[in-house]
Amino acid sequence: MPKKPKKEFQAPKGMRDLLPQDLPYWDKLIAAGQELAQDYGFFKIETPVIEDAELFIRGTGATTDIVEKQMYFVKTAGGASLALRPEGTPGVVRAYMENGMASLPQPVKLFYYGPMFRHEQPQAGRYRQLYQLGLEIFGDPGSVLDAQIIQFCFHLLKSVGLKKIDIHINSLGCPQCRPTYRKALLDYYRHWKDKLCPDCRRRLKENPLRLLDCKEEKCQPIKTQAPASVDYLCDECRRHFKEVLEFLDELELPYFLDSFLVRGLDYYTKTIFEVFWEDKAAAPGALGGGGRYDNLVKELGGKPTPAVGVALGLDRIVELMKKEQVRVSEGPNFKVFLVQLGLMGKKKSLKLFERLYQAGILAAESMSRDSIKAQMKIADKLGVKFALILGQQEALDSTVIIRDMQSGVQETVLQEKVVEELKKRFKK
Ligand code: AMP
């Protein structure tokens, strides 16, 4: 039988490894995000990455792009129809209902972090496995919470070195006023039907609000003249939106009233917003987006529960942190380098490493190397002040040589005294 040619495996299209050189940025962002979310009174929740596909079809919306075109379906042996989560909110809503959180004192403030999956055309800042950090607040209709979520976004991005942020904000109204707006939009667009791109003609039938999302050149002049949702808000929605803007003014947070903003998901009511880097050319798309979804819990089978949330796109934020050369941890702060020679030396070195570690003295090492020259070269490169040399003789005598890397002066000390001796030298 001819041998099968060796297959070279690659990460699936649109997915990638996060490598050691990237992870200091991720770690900084995630640590800051989790800490800040907790400081804002949010509790962490983790939900499965796979859920009943129906949850997203009914939650996110059957005619939204992320469900209609981008969802990864998973068929189980038992025939269940599951899907990899394309976004976090429906899973958190399910968890809120399933775990009886509606009977806790409201509002319930939750945050999550993790991978989402969308079968999109990969490009800069657009992956098929993407990471989001999201916040959700359940059980309170107050406009102040919309503002608090936006405040969190500014605060977090600033704390990881990204200050030039602004938001686009709009209000989509509620089931009372949205139909009037929808009708006005339809009346307007029907007029231009023959001039629309094929996607917009489809949207006209299925999801008219998404007409405002169109990026096609030929639809732009039509879009600019389209009616704006804020002009059709009922009294309650207008009051709510006005309050949100007043809170943002009070916080001195920059925002842009964007009557074309609709967000891609079906469940929003009232406030919606997206977070942008000020220099739009430098960042591929929004860094995050969110809004109020006062009807979703009910639509998924729960009691009527107002809610508001946001999802921040960590992949794009990390890319910006790199572009902006944000400072991140350079790794452990090694104080000494442990040079070992021979089997006895190696054995004692492992023990010495542990002793130093317990005393708070981080030792770099290259245990797999045998040549003293090679090990000293690494010590030199790391710029540590002292090398500790442990060979056959030192192992037998329970001693170790402390070498001052700058002066080259060496002194032999007992292993049990080495911590004390090093501390004395570091003090000098
Ligand atoms: P969305 O709720 O779909 O607006 O997503 C929230 C945020 O997640 C966006 O503003 C982006 O920053 C990020 N995001 C969405 N889709 C992708 C993707 N395919 N790749 C990377 N980031 C994404």
Small-molecule binders here are:
adenosine monophosphate
Structural class: alpha+beta
Computed Rg: 29 Å
Main beta sheet: 8 strands, mixed
Mean pLDDT: 94
Q: Within the CATH hierarchy, at the fold level, what is the topology of the largest domain?
A: BirA Bifunctional Protein, domain 2
Low-confidence stretches: none
Number of self-contained structural domains: 2
Strand content: 15-25%
Work out the helicity level: 25-40%
According to DSSP, the number of beta strands is: 16
Shape: elongated
Quickly name the level 1 CATH class of the largest domain.
Answer: Alpha Beta
Oligomer: single chain
User: Biggest sheet: strands side by side, in what order?
Assistant: 1-5-6-11-10-9-7-8
Number of helices: 15
**CATH H-level superfamily title of the largest domain:** Bira Bifunctional Protein, Domain 2
Distance between the termini: 72 Å
Per CATH, the architecture of the largest domain is: 2-Layer Sandwich
